[in-house]
Amino acid sequence: MTTAQAAAAPVVRLENVVRRFSDRPALDDISLTLARGEIVGLIGRSGAGKSTLIRCLNGLDRPQAGRVVIDGTDISTLSEQALNPVRRRIGMIFQHFNLLSAKTVAQNVALPLKIAGVEKAARLRRVMELLDLVGLADKADMYPAQLSGGQKQRIGIARALAPEPLLLLSDEATSALDPETTQSILNLLGDVNRQLGLTILMITHEMEVVRQIAHRVLVLDAGRIVEEGPVARVLASPQTDTTRSLLRGLSPVLPADLAARIAPQGDQALIRVDVYGPAARRPLLAEIEAITGRPARLVHGGLNDVQGEPYGRLFLALGTGDPALVGAVTARLQPETTAIEVLGYVPSDI
């Protein structure tokens, strides 16, 4: 394999992976890839199969069918001894940090290097590089009990990076942190991804975490991937009930007082438009007015941004209730938007 081919090959490839416990499928015919330098969010409810998937990725569990390929090696068939070099290329960060309380910060970070047989001077150099990277070089001689939750997680990240992994698995790494600390950890992971080109899989049940950091999202439900795609696209127009449930609170919902005024007929049509990418940059109100000859108005919703990609949900009053004009508007916008729906008709004073 050439250098260019190696760079283009996925870091992770799962092919039709099945893992069952008794008669219950924890993973049911899972296939996915993770590209080099990609941050992917894996979301799902409790019991969806996220933990089993992580254990299959780091070789702690083995599928009953399918292949788990890490950097070109199918680890599902390797012996424990053969697995060790592969595991050293996979970093893990945990919800509860998993630091050793009797060891200093520096000793915790150095532990994977010590296990790998790295000599002491090289270990110390690497530890100080990593503590500087995570902004805690002055905490080297402290113990975990002397650190805040956010500092502990930074140490956990430094430890995971010590053996220079090509893949970082983040297992609910921000779930035990307050919002401000969560943001600082996500910023750090984003910096690590950009500086080191590290592939990161973020396992979480919090879509807000995925929105802030991931390039792509996978939705897991009952052991199956039920939806996947660019984060902005999935946020703009979720296709499954599972995804819509996980997104509840992130997507605008029509206020109850306005929803109560919707009727089968009325002065003007009210439509919901989901937009993503180029469609979110279009002058939709001007386009609608050009069709109807009447000004359209945004009555609720708005735009947001993920990794520089705009997305949003807009509730628009068209200024007309003429069925022909309403049909012309939806026909014109349908190819340009992620989803469009006529919700009904509302009074002109909306």
Fold blueprint:
Elements: H1 3-8, E1 12-21, E2 24-34, E3 39-43, H2 50-57, E4 65-70, E5 73-74, H3 80-87, E6 90-94, H4 105-115, H5 120-133, H6 149-161, E7 167-171, H7 179-196, E8 199-204, H8 207-213, E9 216-221, E10 224-230, H9 231-236, H10 241-246, H11 256-259, E11 268-276, H12 284-292, E12 297-306, E13 309-317, H13 323-333, E14 339-346
Parallel strand pairs: 3-8, 3-9, 6-7, 7-8
Antiparallel strand pairs: 1-2, 1-4, 4-5, 9-10, 11-13, 11-14, 12-13
GO molecular function: ATP binding; ATP hydrolysis activity
Keywords: Amino-acid transport, ATP-binding, Cell membrane, Hydrolase, Membrane, Nucleotide-binding, Translocase, Transport
Family: Belongs to the ABC transporter superfamily.
Give an overview in words.
The chain is an alpha/beta fold and 350 residues long. It has two domains: 3-89 and 165-246, P-loop containing nucleotide triphosphate hydrolases (Rossmann fold); 256-346, Alpha-Beta Plaits (2-Layer Sandwich), CATH 3.30.70.260. The chain has helices at residues 3-8, 50-57, 80-87, 105-115, 120-133, 149-161, 179-196, 207-213, 231-236, 241-246, 256-259, 284-292, 323-333, and strands at residues 12-21, 24-34, 39-43, 65-70, 73-74, 90-94, 167-171, 199-204, 216-221, 224-230, 268-276, 297-306, 309-317, 339-346. The protein starts with a helix and ends with a strand. Residues 1-6 have low confidence and may be disordered.
